Amino acid sequence: MARIFMKGCEAIAEAAVRAGCRFFAGYPITPQNEIPEYMARRLPEVGGVFVQGESEIASVNMLYGASSTGTRSMSSSSSTGISLYSEGIAACASARLPAVYVNVMRGGPALGAIQPAQQDYLQATKASGNGGFRMIVQAPSTVQECVDMVYEAFDLAERDDNPVLILADGVLGTMMEPVELPEMKSDEEVKALKQARRHKSVCGHPAEERVLAEPGSVGTGQEARNIAAAEMYKTWDKDVKVEEFMTDDAELILAAYGISARIAKTAVKALREQGIKAGLIRPVRVSPFPYDAFGSLDFGRVKGILDIEMSIPAQMVWDVEYAVRGRCPIRECLRSGGQLMTKEKVMEEALKLAEEVL
Amino acid sequence: MAKGKVEIRAESCKSCGYCVKFCPKGVLAIGEDVNQKGYQYVVAAKPEECTGCATCGQVCPDAAIEVYREM
Amino acid sequence: MAMEKVYRRTTGIVKDMVSGFCPGCMHGTVHKLIGEVADEMGRANDLIRAEGIGCCGLGQKYVTHDSAICLHGRACAAATGIKRNEPDSLVYTYQGDGDLASIGLGETMLAANRGENFTVIFINNGIYGMTGGQMAPTTLLGMKSTTTPKGRIAEEHGYPIHMSEIIDQLIAPYYIERTTCADPAGVRKTKAAIRKAFEYQAAGKGFTFVEIVTSCPTNWGLDPISALDFIKEKMLPEYPLGVLRDKGAEEV
C-alpha cells in the first residue's frame, strides 16, 4: 500500500476509523486538537458519531456509555485533560468496557505547558484512576507506530474487556511523517464486531438476559470483580513488547520510551562511533513493563544504565530500578515542562556515565 | 357483594400506609401481624367494600398489591 | 361473575423481589411507573437505564432492563453515548437532585441544550438520601439537613434550584413537566408524563424531562404519611406542578 504523509494526530484518528471506531467524544486541548477535528469530519462519512463533550468529564462518560453498547469507541486528550478522565477510565476498567484512550502528552503538572512532554508515565502505567486497575499502555515513537498501535488497541481492549491507553506526546501528535495506513474495516466487519459483543452490551435484552454495566458493586461483589481483573492482568506476560537496539554487546544501556527513545537511538549510534558500546532498551508498551529485558541483562558486562525521559523528576526510572535491583548504577537524563530531549543532551549525560562506570 | 378484590403480597409491604390513606372505601388497614422484615403489613379489613378501583395498587411504592375487578 | 386482574405488578421490576427502598420511598413508585409505561408501549426489552448515584442505586438489581450504572452526576453524558449508538432503544436517565442538579448540573444542562433524544427522570426530594441527609441544591429554605443543622440559609447556601424552569430556558428541550407522587392523581399524572416523554423519544423528538417531587421520610425525619403532607404544604409551593413545555401540544 502506498505511503502517505500525515500528521500524527490525524494518523491516529484515521487509524481508529479504519479499526472500526464509530464513536468519538472529546474536548479541545492542545496539542491533540487535530484528533477531534479529524473525527468530526471523518466519522459522519462512515456512519459514526462524533460528539464534542462539554468537558473532559462529560466526554469520558459519553465514552463509557458508548462503550457499554459495544460500539468501538475512542477519546483523546492531553495530560491535564487526562487527569479529568481518570474517574471515567477507572469506570471503564471496573465495568470491563473496552474503550480506547489517547493521551498526547504535554508538560505538567496541571496546566504545565502546551509543548510536548512525557510527564504522565506513572499516571498512565500505575494509576490512571483510583482502585488499582491496570491497562495495556502503548508507547509509540513514530507516527507509523501511532497508527499501528491505535489500530491494534481496539482488538486488545475487546480481547480483555478493558480500556487501552495510547501514550503519545506532543511531538508525535504534531509531526508529519510518511505512513502506511492499515486496511479499512468494511461496514459489515464493523457491524459484526459490535454484534459479537451484544451479549455484553446494555441493549435489547429481555429481563432474563439483562446486562448491567457496573463500575462498582452494591453489596459484597466488588472483591470478586477485583480478583477477576487481577487474573486477567496476569495473562499479560505475553503482551510485553520491547525493542532492544544494539544491546548484545552493550556496556552502557540507554533506557527510553516514545519520542525520547527515538532520540536515544541516534545517540547510541553516535556513542558507538566514539568507541562506547552503547545500546538501547525501549519499552514499546510501558504497561505491561518489560522488566525481564532489564532484569536479565548480563551485569558482568553492562556497567551502567541511563534513564532518558522528558520528565523531571524521572518516572520510568522507578520501573527500571525495580528490574535492575541495584546491580548497576542508574543515572538520569531529563528534560520537562515542554522542553524537548536532544541528542546533544543524551550524549552529554551518556559520556558522563561512561566516564563514571567504564 | 364486592365488585373488586385486592391481593396483598405481605412480604413486599413496608407498612407505609399510602394504600390505607387513599383507598376511597376504607377497605384496607394496617394489620397486626408482621412480615419477615418486621413490618405490620396491610390487610383487607373490609374486603366486601372493594370496588376494584386499583388506587391502592397504583400508590403502593413496593408493588405489593394486585387488584381484580368484576368485568 | 368472574374477576379479572386490572392492576398487576409490572414486568419492569423483578418478580417477587422486595426493593431496598425505605418505607414510603417513592423511588419504588417511579420504578414501577417506568416499567408499566414500557409494558404498555410494548417496549420493555428496548429500555436502557442510565442510572445515577445515590438511592437510585438500590434500583439497579430491582429493575429488569439493561442498565449502565453511571458515575455521580454523569448519567446524561453516559446516556448521550448510549443513545447515539443505539438510536432505536428507549433510554432514560434516573437521577436524584444531588446527582442531577449539583455534581451533574453541567452534564444535565448540556445534554438538554444539545436536545439529546432521551428522557430524564429527575427525582426531587430536596435532600441527599443515600449519604445520610445532607443539603441538596433543592433543599428548601429553613429545612434542616445534616450539613445545614440550623436549616438552609439563603445568605449562606443560596436558594432552592428549580431545574425544570432552568431547563425551560433552553431552546432544544421538547417536553418538560413537573409532577408529584404524593397522591393517586399525582401518581397517574406522573405515569402519563413518563408515557408522553417516552412516546416523544420514540418519535425522535429530542430531550424530555420529567421532574417528580417526592419525599424522603427517612431523612426528613417524618413518617411516610406526614411526609405526604410536607410535600403538599412545603415542597409544592416551591416546586409548582405542571407542564412547562410541550412542543408536541404546540405543534398540534
Descriptive report:
- The complex is a heterotrimer of chains A (358), B (71) and C (252).
- With 358 residues, chain A is α/β, with parallel strands linked by helices.
- Chain A contains 13 helices and 16 strands.
- Chain A folds into 2 domains: 4-238, Thiamin diphosphate (ThDP)-binding fold, Pyr/PP domains (Rossmann fold), CATH 3.40.50.970; 242-357, Rossmann fold.
- Chain A starts with a strand and ends with a helix.
- The mean pLDDT of chain A is 97.
- In chain A, strands 2, 3, 4, 5, 6, 7, 8 and 14 form an 8-stranded mixed sheet that branches. Chain A has a 5-stranded mixed sheet with strand order 11-13-12-15-16, with helices on both faces. In chain A, strands 1-9 form a two-stranded antiparallel ribbon.
- With 71 residues, chain B is α+β, with helices and mostly antiparallel strands.
- Chain B has one domain (4-69): Alpha-Beta Plaits, CATH 3.30.70.20.
- In chain B, 14% of the residues lie in helices and 32% in strands.
- Chain B has helices at 18-22, 55-59; strands at 4-8, 28-34, 40-44, 65-70.
- Chain B has a two-stranded antiparallel sheet.
- Chain B is globular.
- The mean pLDDT of chain B is 97.
- Chain C is an alpha/beta fold and 252 residues long.
- Chain C has a single domain (27-140, 159-251), classed as Rossmann fold (3-Layer(aba) Sandwich), CATH 3.40.50.
- Chain C has 10 helices and 8 strands.
- Chain C has a 7-stranded mixed sheet with strand order 3-2-4-5-7-6-8, sandwiched between helices.
- The longest helix of chain C has 19 residues, at 184-202.
- The interface between A and C is large, with 42 and 34 residues.
List how many beta strands of chain C DSSP finds. 8
Report on the biggest sheet of chain C. Answer: 7 strands, mixed
Which fold name is given in CATH as the topology of the largest domain in chain A? Rossmann fold
Task: Give the rounded overall mean pLDDT of chain C.
Answer: 97
User: Given the C-alpha coordinates, what overall shape of chain C results?
Assistant: globular
Question: What's a quick, concise take on this entry?
Answer:
Chain A is an alpha/beta fold and 358 residues long. In chain A, 40% of the residues lie in helices and 20% in strands. Chain B has helices spanning 18-22, 55-59; strands at 4-8, 28-34, 40-44, 65-70.
